[in-house]
UniProtKB/TrEMBL annotation:
Belongs to the XseA family. GO terms for molecular function: exodeoxyribonuclease VII activity; nucleic acid binding. It is found in: Cytoplasm. Keywords: Cytoplasm, Exonuclease, Hydrolase, Nuclease. Bidirectionally degrades single-stranded DNA into large acid-insoluble oligonucleotides, which are then degraded further into small acid-soluble oligonucleotides. Its main location: cytoplasm. It catalyses: Exonucleolytic cleavage in either 5'- to 3'- or 3'- to 5'-direction to yield nucleoside 5'-phosphates. Residues 1-10 have a biased composition (Polar residues). It comes from the Bacteria. This is Exodeoxyribonuclease 7 large subunit. It is an enzyme of class 3 (hydrolase). GO terms for biological process: DNA catabolic process.
Length: 424
């Protein structure tokens, strides 16, 4: 290697300067610095470390994750090559407390520092996961997760309440997908912190505001996923109980499928992502139009079938003789009516004639028995002044006035008294 001195007035190339010997006049290069750091880090060798898995992302067969110190906020990033992963237990997951053999790695090109895991075994549940599981069991015992208490979402909400981070992708996803499905949908959005110390109080306050609004039909709490550490606020007991006490249906759209905060269990509906929440809360206008068209088609088909059936029945009825020539029925009935009328007239005539004969007989009998007929034969009836009919001679002594009734009229007479039979 060539020798460079200050007296020569020449500046050595950066690659020739060791970082310890760098100066403003003779800086080292980024590559030389990173190579020096890598050489220094490589001397550390492998170490065993204990911590809680807070991230476990599988990409291309390899795992990229994080380990957290349970007693502090310190974290390290690690990677697991697929060849190493095959030797580890299949059920390792976020929340597990593990011990891992790690070797530090420093990448010259990117300047990134990480640890490569060569071995890992579980030592037990992490403290956070253990606390969450105890709280989950307590709330389940209280019935807060029972399906029977979950409310049905409205078919078409007029106003959707949305609680999410300000200018977040979750807000954009919910709005975009909901408006694509039903362009007329309206939102009332309240921004709240979705992680950190402000997450729980701000989310509870937003939930109370939206729950008290009579126009809001459903409330979505949305966040675009994250590692369990950042999602702890959505497992807070205060927030979970506030959601359980809400009168408006609540949809939890906190993260992806492998994230499971307690809010998912108590909410009336769990959506895997904000996009999924929008699709499940708002109906698809195209699907509804297609359904209406299908129902119209089915109704039209049913109506056509019914009309065709009724027309066929009507034609069948019209082919019957009584409807094909209805005058035949009238002619037949007219003849029957004429026959019945003639028979009735004959019976009435015979009844009248029989009545006249009986009446003539009775009249003759009455005439024969009538006092007028007797008087007509020359007999008379004598009445005293009081109207008493004289039946014996002693009833009319001499000098008594009598009225004599004959066939035609009456006359007055004076009795000479009884007449002896010899005189008569």
């Amino acid at each position: 290697m060539a020798s460079f001195t200050a007296a020569s007035g020449q500046t050595p190339p950066p690659d020739a300067v060791h970082p310890r010997d760098s100066a403003p006049e003779s800086p080292t290069s980024v590559t030389r610095l990173n190579e020096t750091i890598r050489g220094f880090v490589a001397n550390w060798g492998a170490v065993w470390v204990e911590g809680e898995i807070t991230a476990w992302n599988l990409r291309g067969g390899h795992v990229f994750g994080r380990l957290k110190d349970a007693s502090a906020d310190a974290m390290i990033s690690f990677r697991l090559w697929s060849s190493t992963l095959q030797r580890l237990p299949d059920d390792l997951k976020v929340g597990d407390r593990v011990v891992a053999c790690v070797k530090s790695d420093y990448f010259v090109k990117s300047g990134d520092f990480t640890f490569t895991v060569s071995s890992m075994r579980r030592t037990g549940l992490g403290d956070q996961l253990e606390r969450l599981e105890r709280l989950r069991s307590q709330l389940r015992g209280e019935g807060l997760f029972d399906p029977s208490r979950k409310r049905r979402l409205p078919f078409l909400p007029q106003v959707i309440g949305l609680i999410t981070g300000e200018r977040s992708d979750a807000e954009k996803d919910v709005h975009r997908n909901a408006e694509l499905r039903w362009p007329g949908v309206r939102f009332r959005t309240i921004h709240a912190a979705v992680q950190g110390d402000r997450c729980v109080p701000e989310t509870i306050a937003a939930l109370g505001t939206l729950d008290a609004d009579p126009d809001v039909d459903v409330i979505i709490i949305a966040r675009g996923g994250g590692d369990p550490q950042t999602l702890l606020g959505f497992s807070d007991e205060r927030l979970v109980r506030a959601v359980a006490a809400a009168t408006t249906p609540v949809v939890s759209a906190i993260g992806h499928e492998n994230d499971h905060p307690l809010l998912d269990d108590v909410a009336d509906l769990r959506a895997s992502t904000p996009t999924d929440a929008a699709k499940r809360v708002v109906p698809d206008v195209a699907e509804q139009r297609a359904l209406v068209a299908q129902l119209r088609s089915r109704a039209r088909s049913r109506l056509t079938q019914r009309l065709s059936h009724d027309v066929a029945q009507l034609e069948q009825l019209r082919t019957r003789p009584v409807l094909r020539t209805p005058e035949t029925m009238l002619t037949t009935r007219a003849h029957e009516l004429w026959t019945l009328t003639a028979r009735g007239r004959d019976r009435v005539t015979r009844a009248i004639e029989a009545g006249e004969r009986v009446t003539a007989q009775l009249r003759a009998s009455l005439r024969a028995l009538s006092p007028g007929a007797t008087l007509a034969r020359g007999y008379a009836i004598a009445h005293l002044d009081g109207g008493v009919i004289v039946r014996t001679a002693t009833q009319a002594p001499a000098g008594a006035g009598v009225v004599v009734t004959v066939a035609e009229g009456s006359f007055a007479a004076v009795s000479d008294g009884p007449v002896a039979e010899s005189d008569a």
